[in-house]
Amino acid sequence: MILIVGATGDLGGRVTSRLRLEGRSVRCLVRTSTDDAGLRGIGAEVVRGDLTMPASLRAACGGADVLIATATAMTRRLAGARSPSIREVDEEGMVALVEAAEAAGVQRFVYLSFAGVEASIGTPLEHAKLVVERRLNGSTMQTVIVRADAFQEVHLAPVARFDMATGKAAIIGKGNTRRRWVATEDVASLLCSVALETDPPALIEFGGPEPLTKNEAIAVAQDLTHRRMKVQRMPRPVARLLVRLLKRRNDALASAFGAGVHQDLNEATWDDEPLRRRGIKPKAATDFLREQASRLPTQT
């Protein structure tokens, strides 16, 4: 039995679907207020619970052999939810999940972190990831920490103010640092693989196949749409100040600004080798941008 914590999110949903297509027995921890019809429709077992409710975690872990954890409070917090906080979900809740999994005899714990997490930007999400990583490193379970670079569907999309439809983009810093933006589906494929393979490494850090700067991504978007994008630039010191000011008032927004600083400061030292080694053909960021451009209305 594979327990998925985060199955109602985009990434966790893809992981769940892939495992069910392979005929794997999957259980999903789902909050009481969340619609579970889609998960039940593909044959996943659903148990009700929450990362902020330790008793529900113990019940969910019972009988599970492998646990894949992709859950985060970021999406709900950015959408305006007042609670729970990143600390309550991504830090305290995840640590409680690790402890519940150990107590239940879970054999393998696969945890999603992010590439370059040790960069010391000082965001709530960064702090939470590092706390959980440290806890996993001292666990009695076999643990796999998966550090993925920034997702194409988030950071090269309107949600991160990269909007090809309106011709507008925002950059924190100079925009000259190469990252390996990775496709969500490729991350899902890797998570499924390491959940099942015989002896996965304890740490996997990876990204997509193409090193690309934000400025280069904007140039590609302009070529594809045949229009000049209006770029708003925020200096790194301003973004760092916002991280400090927003930590207590809006942990998700502070973490989002911090992610922009992180991506502008830290060039990817990782690559797509962990994907290719597992037979996953990764999608390049320019191919993702080409797909997005093809869906835009024709300019007249």
Query: What structural class do the secondary elements suggest?
Result: alpha/beta
Rg for CA atoms: 19 Å
Biggest sheet layout? 7 strands, parallel
Q: Roughly what is the average pLDDT, rounded to an integer?
A: 95
Write the element-wise H/E pattern from the N-terminal end onward: EHEHEHEHHEHEHEEHEHEHHHH
* Percent helix range: 40-55%
State which percent range the strand residues make up. 15-25%
Shape: globular
Strand order of the largest sheet: 3-2-1-4-5-6-9
**Count of strand segments:** 10
Please give the alpha-carbon distance between the first and last residues: 54 Å
SS field, number of helical segments: 13
Low-pLDDT regions = none
Any chance you could write out the topology, listing elements then pairs?
Layout: E1 2-5, H1 10-21, E2 26-30, H2 37-41, E3 45-48, H3 54-61, E4 66-69, H4 74-78, H5 86-104, E5 108-114, H6 124-137, E6 142-148, H7 152-155, E7 162-163, E8 168-172, H8 184-196, E9 203-206, H9 214-225, E10 230-234, H10 236-246, H11 251-265, H12 273-277, H13 285-294
Parallel strand pairs: 1-2, 1-4, 2-3, 4-5, 5-6, 6-9, 8-10
Antiparallel strand pairs: 7-8
Describe the structure.
This protein is an alpha/beta fold and 300 residues long. Helix 5 packs parallel to helix 6. 44% of the residues lie in helices and 16% in strands.
Summarize this structure briefly.
This protein is an alpha/beta fold and 300 residues long. 44% of the residues lie in helices and 16% in strands.
